[in-house]
């Protein structure tokens, strides 16, 4: 599936949800006494969806990859901060919520890694480099591949000619 807007990307939505949930957590009492920890985890959480959005809007696959890895790093930073907070007495009453957030951050990280892997194995260089000729060539390649798949299915007796 091709996405035209970053807001439609499932991984961006998951990153945004991670940020929203981090902000819900940091609104709790223990964070009021620990401003620097609160600020750091909030910035890291917001960085996930923001870097996905920025990379998507850049227009090249290489820049997108760079920002996906930055977003992935931010998801890791959120997890690391949560690991630290779990060891601090002030946050003992929030362990369950922090554990759930760590799982969410890890899920976002896995999605980002899978997307980055697929982009690295792609011949697409990005929207910025698309011309009418490259669009036509890409469309022709896609049509050819679909035709060859259909022929293979016919050959295997799984489809009608």
Describe it.
By secondary structure, the chain is an all-alpha fold. The chain has two domains: 118 residues, Up-down Bundle (de novo design (two linked rop proteins)); 31 residues. Helix content is 76%, strand content 0%. The longest helix is centred in the middle third of the chain and has 27 residues. The radius of gyration is 21 Å and the shape is elongated.
Number of domains: 2
Mean pLDDT, nearest integer? 90
Biggest β-sheet description? none
Distance N terminus to C terminus? 27 Å
Spatial extent as radius of gyration: 21 Å
Please give the number of β-strands.
0
CATH class of the largest domain: Mainly Alpha
Low-confidence stretches: none
The amount of beta strand, in percent, is under 5%
- Helical/strand content category: mainly alpha
Report the helical percentage.
over 70%
- The multimeric state of the shown protein is single chain
Question: Mind telling me which CATH architecture of the largest domain this is?
Answer: Up-down Bundle
By CATH's scheme, which homologous superfamily of the largest domain applies? 23S rRNA-intervening sequence
Gross morphology is elongated
Number of helical stretches of at least 4 residues: 6
CATH level 3 topology of the largest domain: de novo design (two linked rop proteins)
């Amino acid at each position: 599936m091709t996405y035209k807007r970053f807001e439609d990307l499932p991984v961006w939505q998951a990153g945004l949800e991670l940020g929203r949930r981090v902000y819900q957590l940091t609104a709790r009492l223990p964070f009021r006494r620990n401003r620097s920890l609160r600020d750091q985890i909030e910035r890291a959480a917001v960085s996930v969806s923001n870097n996905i959005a920025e990379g998507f809007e850049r227009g090249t696959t290489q820049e997108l990859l760079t920002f996906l890895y930055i977003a992935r790093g931010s998801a890791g930073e959120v997890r690391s901060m949560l690991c630290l907070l779990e060891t601090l007495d002030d946050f003992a009453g929030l362990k369950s919520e922090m554990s759930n957030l760590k799982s969410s951050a890890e899920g976002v990280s896995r999605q980002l890694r899978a997307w980055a892997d697929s982009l690295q194995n792609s011949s697409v260089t990005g929207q910025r480099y698309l011309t009418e000729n490259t669009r036509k060539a890409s469309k022709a390649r896609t049509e050819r591949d679909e035709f060859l798949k259909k022929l293979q299915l016919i050959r295997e007796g799984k489809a009608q000619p």
